[in-house]
Design brief:
One of its GO terms (cellular component) is TAT protein transport complex. The chain is mainly alpha-helical. It contains nine helices and no strands. The longest helix is centred in the middle third of the chain and has 39 residues, at 101-139.
Length: 245
Amino acid sequence: MNSNSSSTHAVHFLVELRSRLIYSLIFLFFIFSVLLYFANNLYSWLALPLLKFLPQGHLIATQIVSPFFVPFKLAFLAAMVMAMPFFLYQTWAFVAPALYGHERRLLWPFLFTSAILFYCGMAFAYFVIFPALFHFLAGVAPQGVMLSPDIGEYLDFTSKLLLMFGCLFEIPIVMVLLVSAGMVTRARFVKMRSYAIVGAFIIGMLLAPPDVLSQTMLAVPIWLLYESGVLFARLVEKKQHEQEK
């Protein structure tokens, strides 16, 4: 009887997992199909922060198939990013039945906040970091050298930066996870505040143009993200203490 019950649960588990994956792939394909129609416009929008500082006002394509495949790749990457909240929802719906009530109430806001922070990080990179960085790079080209990036190289470079800043803005989520798991205490994060500030300015020095204003524009948001993580960690510890009572 127990064996039959276990087999039934295993089959139900696999069927549910397959359904969630199919829903996710269908949604991804739908978003990709829509974005593919606007792929060239999407690439022009991505290239805009650099085009403003190029003397010739355009990028180049060094391969014959690049004008087709590069926007195609961008459309797929954008579809993945846009479909992320739906993927997270499917993940939540799949694991929710196995969670306690209070865990379900916490998981969904956690996933929602994680997605919002990721999008904020990408927006920060596009609207703040890209203009400052490309203005600097266009201004330091040696005399006689015309900056004419390849469209594929530009996509690879910018997509990595967008992903990097999206992940950087997940700092508060990571801190909350560590505190919730009991791996690190809020007091420990408070003691590490000075190291976090130094680390934020080191990241600013490495990723921003070599001027104090640009580096500060990057370092301060990272430090504020750390401080928000400390604040949320306090709320988590308070909630845990209330549950223990």
